[in-house]
Amino acid sequence: MGIYKEKRTYVIGHVNPDADSIVSAYAYAYLKQALGNPNCKAVRAGSANAQTEFIFEKFGVPLPRLLPDLIPKVKHYAEAADTTIGSNASLWEALQLMTANSLDLLPVINAKGHYQALLYYESFAHYILNKANPQRQATVHSSINLMCQTIKGQELTKYNAASFEEFAILVGADYTATLKEAICSLNPANLVVLIGDRFDLQRFIIEKKVRLLIITGGFLLSPELCRLAQQNEVSVLVSPYDSTTTSMMLMYSAPVLDAADVIESVGVDLPLKKAKTKILAAKPRALPVVDDDSQTLCGIISESDLMKEPKVNVILVDHNELAQSIEGIENYKILEVIDHHKLGLFKTDEPITFVTRVVGSTSSLIAEQFRAQKAPIPKELAGLLLGGIISDTIGLKSVTTTDFDHKIAHELATIAHINFEQLAAEIAKASDNISGKNPHDLIVMDQKIYERGGKKYLISQIETTNVGGFTKERATFLTELRRQLTEQNAYFACLMLTDLSKLSSYLFIEGDSDFIAKLPYPKHEENLYFMKGVLSRKKQLIPLFSEIFNAVDN
């Protein structure tokens, strides 16, 4: 996911979410969108349990996206890079673009949209100072095509015009004899001569077979000299500007990369705290932002962006204590709270909407919000809300159940055209879908194969609330991992056992002893490690393994 171009609002339940939490978030985000807030999105702060998966699957609704944390990241603050320039464009074109759009810096990208470099005024000034040396022959790294585009030239003849070379620039302002002597002293193969309507010198220059003749002031070449230029394969351009202006513009015909600076980029998901250090150390006090996977340029984050509010607000459902909320929540503005639990303690800078009531389920309160807004509830959404109520009230049998829950539940059953008792029985029956599977099936059920420097390694993941049942069978799972290690000829094989109730994981691992010895987690038992707070294979475990690979390789 790229940077956030517009401010968005996340509707989110508590960590270790149950069905009521995720259903409430989905339904309330749906209502907000229906009321004209398209940037209101439902997310979940943890994995869905078996009951939740069953409810969403039954009514054909996709689960909200999992949000691992809300630690401030680059994508929450960066601005979109709406104006960019291709790496083969001229410096002149780049400066025109910066002026027209009042930009202080301009990202340079390649044909695939990948970041290449950053052009900013200091890098441009450095380029000009290197070129402005009266002790050296004026040169420019360019192509005839790029020079023609820069000076808005009229081409008369062009040869090998796309080739980039280091051209020597000579302005024909001297006496004839002096100019001829200067031309003869330089290599014609990379020589560019600028001259006005001095026809005798035009012939001399073409006869010397210089690389490029530019006739300034808009004067044309005679037909006879055009033919001679063709015979000698001399490229000829006509500039509408005088010689002084043309020579100045030629210095800007270099590819923009020649004046740009290769400033280190940062990924969209880099924590803001780390990005801030890099920003303050960068010359332009700004950094290009790229997609972590594709490396496509997404935007720019500058020092001034660090002072802005993040492009994220939050609405809390099914909880109101920050200790129960997603990590990093304290960094964002809370707009609303809808909950049925006891009140926690947190402060806001502005008044907020706070809906609470003694009921058995937040889903009941969300359904009531549809009624208050006079918004219809779609059939599948009514089924979801009913499932949330049933799950949280144990089929309306819990001591927390109120008359209000009964009333709302039966109204939703009518809208969804569903039998309440039948749905309650189905939800009660829903259980962990990994039960009854043998160690081999469990390990290969969600196994991914990776490769690093010719070394293959295997990572499996299982999510459960019954960690004890797995750790007791440690020897059995390690035996299966050793079998796969041999079968796959892998560097190591591991199983990440994620505890949904404690939001942490255990790691069963077999393989290279040097690699395993560098794991930074406490050993629970032999070849079994406890990883507190580690939930994601992609975002947490694989980056750790990359660091260990680097340490082992070095």
Outline type: elongated
Fourth-level CATH superfamily of the largest domain? inorganic pyrophosphatase (n-terminal core)
Using the CA coordinates, give the radius of gyration. 34 Å
In CATH, the topology of the largest domain is named inorganic pyrophosphatase (n-terminal core)
Q: Which regions are unreliable across 5 or more consecutive residues at pLDDT < 50? A: none
Overall strand count: 25
Please count the helical segments.
19
Strand content: 15-25%
Count of discrete domains: 4
State the helical fraction. 25-40%
Q: Which structural category fits the helices and strands? A: alpha/beta
Give, in spatial order, the strands making up the sheet with the most strands: 3-2-1-17-18-19
Give your account of this protein's structure:
The protein has 19 helices and 25 strands. It is elongated and about 105 Å long. It starts with 7 loop residues before the first strand and ends with a helix. The mean pLDDT is 90.
